[in-house]
Amino acid sequence: MSLTFAVWNVLLNNFVIEMADFSGREIGILQSLREVPGFLAFTAIYLLLFIREQVFAYVFLAVMCIGITITGWFPSVWGLYATTMVMSIGFHYFETVNQSLTLQWIDKDKSAHFMGRALAVKGLGSLLAYSLVWLLMDQLGVSYNTVYMTFGLVGLVIVVLAWMAFPVFKQEHEQRKSLVVRKEYWLFYALTMLSGARRQIFVVFAGFMMVEKFGYSVGQISLLFIVNYAFNMLFAGSIGRWIGRVGERTALTVEYVGLIAVFAGYAMVETAEMAAALYVIDHLFFAMAIAIKTYFQKIADPKDIASTAGVSFTINHIAAVVIPVLLGFVWLQSHAAVFWVGVVFACGSLVLARLIPAKPERLVYVQ
Question: Is a pLDDT exceeding 60 seen at residue 26?
């Protein structure tokens, strides 16, 4: 997932500006469309009536790879909207069951460390992708289309090999095959929604600022992403262990205080170097979001995990569907205003994080 999605992600802003003449309006619409499948992730629970979660993951990972493979063939506004939707359906449905299976298969006392290690492995895949993109495009002059096709097809081959190589893993708890929304999970839902809002400002507008305001090339963006994922690879495992040691409340408090400072920095930054530093720091804070998932794992009924993974993905993407297109129009008037909105979201998240118990335990609720 990380090897292929990293290529789509690192090329996006340069590709849409150079090949399709995007402005903040078009990139906002594209990113809102990209999040629609995430908003509909709750429908995954109905597909799981007919297909095992593990097979489901393979199928939609393959769909994502197909969407990336065909992206370079359609360098227009509507073409990019269409190929992005294909890629996004695969990405979001895969990520829904990825989260669900991780929480089901990994013991609670090991999950934070495991998720940190998984982030480090993702960082390695992304690091490899960004390095190859830099080599192919910045040094060898390979076209966008060739890069998209190469990585998409390689990803497809890896999915098929993984499907053939790995056994079917046992699920200890039979998952409920219906939507489960419980009022007892309200704090998890609220943290998830604000996390989705904050993530969109980083994913959509921080990277777009690098290209539009500071003129970063594909090669420079690739190098910036390489630094990001090198940090992830080196420190994500340690961050996971640290979360397991200090607890979710402390970890999320540190994250959101840091994000308030980062978003304020984005709003005022005037140099490319400082913007790059903020971007790297911002990305490092992503690893601390593990704490939201481990908090849910500790309070939830184990049979709710698959269903709630879909519901939480939908909640995460309520903001994700709306924010890019709305803030895309704000962007046309003021770049800084977009990031001040991010400060507000981070402040809201900080207030909620302080409501997490010091030692979360499984909640008792009425069936």
Answer: yes
> What's the number of domains the chain is made of?
1
> Does residue 153 have a pLDDT over 70?
yes
- What's the rounded Cα separation, in Å, for the pair 141 and 144? 9
Question: What confidence score (pLDDT) does residue 366 get?
Answer: 44
Question: Two tokens at 93?
Answer: 């449905």
Whether 155 and 4 have beta carbons less than 8 Å apart is answered as yes
First-to-final CA distance of the chain? 37
Give the CA distances from residue 306 to residues 2, 190, 198, in Å, rounded to whole numbers and listed in that order: 22, 19, 24
Is 98 a domain residue?
yes
On whether the CB atoms of residues 128 and 5 are closer than 8 A, the answer is: no
Cβ-count burial of 270 within 10 angstroms (0-12 exposed, 13-18 middle, 19+ buried)?
Answer: exposed
**SS3 labels along 55-75:** HHHHHHHHHHHHHHHHHHHCC
* pLDDT per residue as tens digits for the range 91-111: 988 888 887 777 777 777 777
Query: Structure pTM?
Result: 0.68
CA pair distance 261, 308, nearest whole angstrom: 32
Which CATH number characterizes residue 206's domain? 1.20.1250.20
**pLDDT given at position 16:** 82
Q: How confident is the model at residue 347 (pLDDT cuts 50, 70, 90)?
A: very high
**CA angle at residue 124 from 313 to 279, to 5 degrees?**
65
Is 127 inside any structural domain?
Answer: yes
Place of tokens 């993984």: 162
Domain span holding position 16? 2-353
Q: Is residue 365 part of a domain?
A: no
- Report the C-alpha gap between 101 and 144 in whole angstroms: 34
Question: Is residue 359 domain-resident?
Answer: no
Which token pair is 118? 């998984």
- Measured CA to CA, the distance from residue 19 to residue 178 in angstroms comes to 44
Q: Which residues contact 174 (CB under 8 A, 6 or more apart)?
A: 303
CA 65 to chain centre: 16
Quote the tokens at residue 207. 């990277």
Helix (H, G, I), strand (E, B) or coil at 345: helix
